[in-house]
Amino acid sequence: MNQLSFPATRHEALRRLKSFQPSMGPSYAKGRNYDLGPGQRSNVSLLSPYISSRLILEEEVVRTALSRDSAEQSEKFVEEVFWRAYWKGWLELRPWIWEEYQSSLSEKIAWLYSHPPTHSVYASACEGTTDFSCFNSWVQELKTTGYLHNHARMWFASIWIFYLGLPWELGADFFYKHLLDGDPASNTLGWRWVAGLQTRGKQYIASPENIAKFTKDRFDMGALKCAKIKPFIASSAREKPPNEYQPALLESSGLIAPSLLLIFGEDHYLEGSPLKGMNVQSILGLSPKLLEPSLGLAANPLQFKLSALKDGLERAGQYFGLSTESVATLDSLKSNLHEIRRKNLTVSFLRPRVGPWRSLLENIFRDVGFQQGDLRIFERRWDAELYPLAQRGFFQFKRCIPSVIENLNLH
Ligand SMILES: Cc1cc2nc3c(=O)[nH]c(=O)nc-3n(C[C@H](O)[C@H](O)[C@H](O)COP(=O)(O)OP(=O)(O)OC[C@H]3O[C@@H](n4cnc5c(N)ncnc54)[C@H](O)[C@@H]3O)c2cc1C
Question: What is the CATH class of 259-378?
């Protein structure tokens, strides 16, 4: 099998996890920053499409690392997994950052059409026909595989913003449409970090020397060496304090009322979640097509998400001993939910985090007339432990790693 094809099943996720286990320690710490090209990815796990769709869980990944190497040896790898939790929590406490990004993206798209020169730079960036050969190669890689190495994502975003002079919002949108692991928190905040919006005054300017070193001279750096950096001035919006964290249910014991169980893009492992003890009457899968056309996902990520849902539904159906159904249009989702109301059933699901799924579900529950009491909203302990801690920078956040490992029994 081609190393960069990503079958969207839990079985495949576990297989990859196991095969990467020997590389989670010192070799990851030493080699992880090298982007040696598609087909040369044994230095990183390639697990992100599986983690961000929760075909496997962060705690499973951390436990696998710690079961082979000491905490010290696997520190770098474990820290990267905690970066994901940090970004998820950071956005969860600041939902307005996602809303601002969404409205700014719409403005930037409209603006582009009234600025033909920038529009043509944007078009050549999306086509991968710029003057920068490394950038063009990453565009092709992203479009064909749905994956980019972390360092390549940083360089890509930096070239987009500082060398091509394009709005970061359009780049984040381009990534989100093409990445298999596209995640509202890691992606939006990753782009904001490169632009210098996350850590004020700290922009990430990619240097040709750094790219040459960590790609082992795969690209011709001539054009990038000659290019002028375009200044990007971050708007200085006043920083608001984070919201208080809204906890959800951690277990289902005592909840005996029959329920409809929802499964959708953010988590495909319901039989390994707090929902597993519910009195489930039926299981409904929400197709990623419900988020179209506003997201405009490319064919690869759409297919990955459809297959992940199929896999998640099959396992949940087997576990609860029920047949399952999935819906792909808002009308059919609404009519299913109306039926649930008529039958006086509750609806149970894992809390969607800030992003398109949360917006969709909030709107639909309101339209159908569900009250808070009709909904059983759960969350995983990993999220409940970690997300409230994303108050400040990652440096402070990562101090919690030993105690979270202890509390969640990840040794
Ligand atoms: C501009 C930009 C956009 C990004 N967009 C996304 C995105 O949409 N979805 C996404 O999952 N990650 C995103 N990342 C983070 C990171 O690039 C990917 O998680 C990583 O490259 C995935 O490859 P891997 O699984 O081989 O990682 P590994 O190096 O093997 O890391 C293991 C796991 O740790 C987590 N992780 C690693 N690095 C980071 C990081 N910097 N931030 C958050 N989590 C991390 C991922 O879950 C990853 O699977 C983005 C980074 C940048 C700079």
Answer: alpha beta
